[in-house]
TrEMBL record:
Swiss-Prot/TrEMBL GO biological process terms: methylation
Species in which this protein is naturally found: Candidatus Frankia alpina
Residue ranges occupied by any Methyltransferase domain in the UniProt entry: 36-126
One Pfam family per UniProt: Methyltransf_25
Protein name: Class I SAM-dependent methyltransferase
Molecular function via GO: methyltransferase activity
InterPro entries with a match to the protein in the record: Methyltransf_25 (IPR041698), SAM-dependent_MTases_sf (IPR029063)
Keywords: Methyltransferase, Transferase
Length: 202
């Protein structure tokens, strides 16, 4: 269902493009490639888009069936079954994380721990891009939503930004996008980063 949707979503492509550019320039400054994890990658179309934008992206999903589909359709790319709430990766292993409509399935009370895990995985300066369905205006708390496949929550962008701040992230851009002809709900895309330590002059 989701595989072709980026082609008709220029605003989403714009934010993914900015994310990729930031990751690439950081990797160039460090003189080393930066790995990017697409967490909750589903069929892998965002992973493939990031790869086309020149970043070393790989996909992770809880569902072995999704990973089988992603491997079948994009045989040149790396996809692994895993739970983004606790990945077997060293701290600071990643230069970027994308979680595209996947945090919606994490029970709200576990989202703070999820963001703490994202902060652990990212190297200082690492970039985080989140896409999710936004809550209705004026709703300040996660809003339960009867998703097609499994229950999910729509989030007020400000509530996500507050939780990211508590996990040590700094939000740098936010997009609130109205539904297009194929959607019923507004979407939010948030760009944040894990600050790099600044040198203190002696
Ligand atoms: C709505 S789909 C979005 C898929 C893809 N990111 C996209 O935009 O097309 C949500 C995906 O997140 C995955 N997911 C949910 N919770 C997860 C978790 N804790 N760890 C890894 N994947 C998860 C689901 O299996 C599902 O494939």
């Amino acid at each position: 269902m989701f595989s072709g949707e980026l082609a008709r979503r220029p605003l989403d492509r714009a934010l993914l493009g900015a994310f990729a550019e930031l990751v690439r320039s950081q990797a160039a400054a460090a003189g080393a490639p930066a790995a990017v994890a697409d967490l909750g990658c589903g069929p892998g179309h965002i992973t493939a888009h990031l790869h086309d934008l020149g970043v070393e992206a790989f996909g992770v999903d809880l569902s072995p069936q999704m990973i089988a589909l992603a491997r079948r359709d994009r045989p040149g790319l790396r996809f692994e079954v895993g739970n983004m709430q606790g990945l077997a990766l060293a701290g600071g292993a990643l230069g970027g994380i994308v979680a595209w409509y996947s945090i919606i399935h994490t029970p709200p009370e576990r989202v703070p721990a999820l963001f703490a895990e994202f902060a652990r995985l990212l190297a200082p300066g690492g970039q985080l891009l989140l896409g999710f369905q936004a809550a209705d205006p004026g709703v300040g708390v996660p809003q339960w939503h009867p998703h097609l496949v499994t229950p999910s929550h729509r989030w007020p962008p400000e509530a996500i930004i507050a939780l990211l701040g508590r996990a040590g992230f700094v939000a740098s851009a936010r997009l609130l996008r109205d539904p297009d002809a194929t959607e019923r709900l507004p979407s939010a895309v948030l760009l944040a980063h894990r600050p790099a330590p600044t040198a203190v002059p002696t």
